[in-house]
Amino acid sequence: MTVLIILAVLLGLGFGGYKFFKSRSSVETGGKASASDTVPADTDEAGTTGGNAGTDGEADGSGESGAEPDAQSGAEALISQARGLAQMYDYDGAIALLTGDTEYAGDPAVQEALKEIGDEKATLVRVNPQEITHVFFHSLIMDTSKAFDGDSREAGYNQVMTTKDEFLKIMESMYERGFVLVRLHDIAYETTDENGNVYFKEGDIMLPPGKKAFVLSQDDVCYYEYMDGDGFASRMVIGEDGKPTCEMKLDDGSVVTGDYDLVPILNRFIEEHPGFSYKGAKGVLAFTGYNGILGYRTAASYSESPTYESDREMAAAVAQCLRDDGWELASHSWGHRNMGQISMENFITDTTKWENEVETLTGPCDIILFPFGSDIGDWHAYSPDNERFQYLKSVGFRYFCNVDSHQYWVQIGSDHMRQGRRNLDGYRMYYDLIDPEIDHLSDLFDVEEVFDPARPTPVPPMS
Ligand SMILES: [Zn+2]
Fold it and tell me: How many angstroms separate the alpha carbon of residue 88 from the centre of ligand 1?
């Protein structure tokens, strides 16, 4: 009897482990939401496991314990943890970890690792903050057949969106060329000098020779109502592993969870390529407010909806999860307004709405990514009598980003920072592709390799 119970438990473990593996692998293939994603391990597979119960049950059991980290000695585990930090350029953290360990600091292998990490650290070069590029995206197109289906939204998606395949190719290329993701707050940040004066200080981003820092952002992470049925994720959620992930609705109305937009796709890329992220940096995510954020209908106009309160709670929880995961959160104005052009009265009304309806979910944000790239000043430094700058500063903003196709556009003032952002979308890629005289992208990737053949061409010009 006891033997039978043990057998049953082992079988359960084996099968559970298999199911876990299967669900994970279906997530990895992500992208196309096929029916197989939702199908659990079927009866045939379960039957196979059952048929070999006598031996396979036990093999599965030992296989699982073999995957436990205790296979490493204490010193080895410590060293691999330190190497993990150094891979993401946290050399000081790695050194502190090794030298601070009371049990293994004297171990010869630990001493050797310490020397290697110290030698690597000695080769680092400070990144020039003026030479940091910033690229941005919108929600990624997961299903090109739905986005490019000839309806009235097709042209807009074709111009300003990027497909999943394009995004992955761009990340691969940038990784191969030595780009490393950094936070806006790594480039420059507010601090206080010895006399108590608040000022903006350049950050000391230290990278190995040949590496280049860059910032990545994603605008309109709202999963607007109009995008429903057009081949995009439907909202962001917290996955079973506690990390941010996405939901996508299938044609039959069922919902699948997995890598259906930039956040989980980039997270997985960084898991596989830790050297792509400086100390765990991710991207900047910018929200408008009028449709709610992250796919939750959190705007005041939905306050009569039965799910309004739960939507607000879940949006706030996902926002916190994103912050904990290394993402920076930003304003994109409440109403996707042209912040450089609208009246001062509307400017204040919009900003107040953003504070009330969005910042109450995201927590304090000091970054604004201007919709349409419409800055509140020209290329000269913001003057102290710039009313809009002073207003945004008074409500907490310190980082101001426009859109600019130059490789670098960085201004670090005494109390703020500005950066230009480059759109890596269908419009930019198509016109670079067809005209050899135009080159906005070759420092990042080869557009011929990246441009998705699923796009209808010509991509319409911007009016
Ligand atoms: Zn936008």
Answer: 31
CB 178 within 8 A of CB 273: no
Q: How far is the CA of 404 from the centre of ligand 1 (A)?
A: 14
Same domain, 155 and 176: yes
In a shared domain, residues 170 and 89:
no
Residue 277 lies in a domain: yes
Q: Is residue 54 part of a domain?
A: no
Q: How confident is the model at residue 72 (pLDDT cuts 50, 70, 90)?
A: confident
Structural domain span for residue 427? 129-450
CB atoms within 10 A of CB 220: 21
pLDDT over threshold 50, residue 270: yes
Task: State the distance from the centre of ligand 1 to the C-alpha of 226, rounded, in angstroms.
Answer: 14
**How far apart are the CA of 7 and the centre of ligand 1, in A?**
57
Q: Give the distance (Å) from ligand 1 centre to CA of residue 290.
A: 12
Residues 93 and 139 grouped into a single domain: no
pLDDT of amino acid 15: 38
CATH of the domain at 398: 3.20.20.370
Q: Tell me, what DSSP letter sits at residue 263?
A: H
H/E stretch holding 284? strand 284-287
Q: How far is the CA of 136 from the centre of ligand 1 (A)?
A: 10
Q: What is the mean pLDDT of the chain?
A: 88
Taking the C-alpha atoms of residue 382 and residue 394, their distance in angstroms, rounded to an integer, is 14
Residue 357, pLDDT above cutoff 70: yes
Confidence of residue 70 (pLDDT cuts 50, 70, 90): low
Which of 63, 91, 123 is the last residue in one of the domains? 123
> Residues 77, 219: one domain?
no
Question: Among the residues of 273-324, which ranges form H helices?
Answer: 308-324
